[in-house]
Amino acid sequence: MTIEKESIKRARQVNLIEYCRHKGLELVEEGKNSGNYRVKDRGGLIIKENKYNWFSKNSGGDVIAFCMNVYELSFKEAVDELATFQDTQEGGRRSPSPAIRRERLEREKEVFVLPKAENDNNKVFAYLTRTRKISEDLVNRLISSGLIYQDERGNCVFPCFDKNGEAKAAILRGTIPDRPFHNEAKNSDKKFGWLLKPEKDSDLVIVTESVIDALSILVLSPNLDGKVYLLAMGGVGLAPLKVFLSNHKGVKRVVVSVDNDEAGSQCFKAIQEDFGVDHEIIDRRPKNKKDWNEVLCSRRK
């Protein structure tokens, strides 16, 4: 199905700030009369002059690109969505085309299924222990508990579960050192992160971007093992932290151990603003390295 140039033109005329508010996104102005708006709970997603920049995803662009990346729409879906919004703003009654409606219905039917496991975990074990310097005992324990496994393509799979123990997402990491691969399993629900629970309830959670950083912290500080929650968000989006805190009312301290870069700085600031009223927010980003695995590897050369 082709898209008329007029529809694309109308889509690009949509005011991105008004559209965000229409979608229920909460906007926080960055400084008085700055014109910069941060989208709450989206970790480093900034809007200015009808353009967006999403630090955690290394993406940016116009309102169509915003729809495609934030709401995971195809180009056709994004144009149709925005053109419909524009018509509504002008009092029109334009409806999505039948093809777009069918595509949306198919997307809604898709469900999450964990990637199929390989018969062994040899590549995962070698990558985590030799390349990433995670202790063998810790890796073996997490494999045994089902929190790490190897898929049929040889990737590390880090399953993410809801409060009832149902798998809702999976973070993927390649195991070939010179061919970096980061992704998430198909149909993953981004509201859920990878969680390692303590032996008893704790009032403290350590938040990282990646699972490997969370494991690195345990190796560097073994006294924390079994004593605190560790939550890997799979990036700097705050939805997993929001879900976690809503399910763990007893947690009052949030240790932020995200990366030492611009996206990490934006993430820390967002956590302070979004959760600082009811929680103590503690900054534990690495000082002289980009992330905690770099710290670990530098000490185990």
UniProtKB/TrEMBL annotation:
Domain DUF3991 as annotated: residue spans: 126-192
Any one GO biological process: DNA replication
Family matches, as InterPro entries: DNA_primase_Znf_CHC2, DUF3991
Classification via Pfam families: DUF3991, Toprim_2
GO molecular function, a single term: zinc ion binding
Name the UniProt record assigns to this protein: DNA primase
Gene source species: Desulfosporosinus acididurans
Gene behind this protein: dnaG_1
